[in-house]
Amino acid sequence: MIQGPSDKETAVVFEDDDIQVVHRDAGGGDLLVVTFSSLGMFGPGFASQADGSTYWGRGFLEKAGLSAVGFVAKAPHWFMTPGMADATRAVCDTTKRYRKAVAYGSSMGAFAALKFGRSSGCAVAVACGPQATLDNKRLPVPDLRYQQHYRAGLHRGMRIEARDVCQTAYVIFDPHCAEDRVHAAEIARAAPEVRCIEAYFAGHECVRIFGGTRPATELITAAADEDMAHLRALTDALRRSSPARALELALAALQRRPVLADSIFTAFEGRLDTGQRLRFERIRTAAGRGRAPAAQPPG
After folding, report:
1. Residue 106: which of 71, 75, 139, 141 has the closest Cα?
2. Could you report the per-residue pLDDT of 112-145, keeping only the tens digit for each?
3. Mean per-residue pLDDT for 7-17?
4. What is the rounded distance in angstroms from the CA atom of residue 18 to the CA atom of residue 109?
């Protein structure tokens, strides 16, 4: 274990070969956000970004002036590592200094927020697009998306159980994403106290609809207040105006109404990031469809 400051504001509170955990005290306030990194945080070739100060959600948390603990995975192992028990015990020494701690993550990090939030001293968890497991034998319908990362020694029998989950836990997911719908159902079956919030046509990366300091902060504070009605209203309002929703609608229209798909994509293309644009182009190419010709102006 390593202790001590790694920069002006951030301290490494635990580290081993698999994970790094950092703490940033914003000073003042009584809310702590405990984040778990996602696959998107890795560099090329799944290079670790564990540098003593980087953690998932850092941008909005620092701008919002919120204190944070960040669990940073050094490999795509879904935090199912031998050192997590020691890591969560170390984090509890930090979380007990705050009135309330909220666990937060997306996809791999969402699984960890549900699996390890409670043992890290969190009262509430917010999980966007979580997996219930990487062990397809525990799913009624196999999910092939992450099987390249499955390791029998780490992930056989892996699952979220009721005793893992925070006193209050929210799962935000897109029911139109078939795999995520299966995972959400399995999580709710294992832990019936989990509250599911549907983010229709927000895609697997539904966390994107909360992009930006204000939406993300509102998400966290509503969760900390355990305000389900606010969370539902916020999710619905943000998804309706999100370019992520437009992308999912375009993809849904691609097979039967390709001209409409191109029209939606073109209208929102400037608000999509490079990865989202490439995803649309890749799926369109795989479907054997080129971009429809642009409509000619009248006259």
Report:
1. 71
2. 999 999 999 999 999 999 999 999 999 999 999 9
3. 85
4. 14
Residue ranges of domains in the chain:
10-241, 245-286
Strand pairing class (67-73; 31-36): parallel
pLDDT digits (tens, 9 = 90+) for 170-228: 999 999 999 999 999 999 999 999 999 999 999 999 999 999 999 999 999 999 999 99
Mean per-residue pLDDT of the chain: 90
Q: What is the pLDDT of residue 120?
A: 98
Rounded (5°) CA angle 160-161-164 = 90
pTM of the model: 0.86
CATH numeric code, 10-241:
3.40.50.1820
- Closest residue by Cα to residue 268 from 289, 290, 240: 240
User: In terms of Cα–Cα distance, which of 72, 165, 59, 69 is closest to 111?
Assistant: 165
Beta strands 10-15; 19-24: pairing state: antiparallel
Q: How many CB atoms lie within 10 A of CB 32?
A: 28
Alpha-carbon distance of 139 to 106, in angstroms, equals 20
Total length of the chain: 299
What DSSP designation does 147 have?
A: G
Q: Is 71 helix (H, G, I), strand (E, B) or coil?
A: strand
CA separation for the pair 113, 166 (Å, rounded): 9
Residues in CB range of 104: below 8 A, 6 or more apart: 33, 34, 35, 36, 57, 113, 125, 126, 127, 220, 223
Closest to 169 (Cα-Cα) out of 138, 140, 128: 128
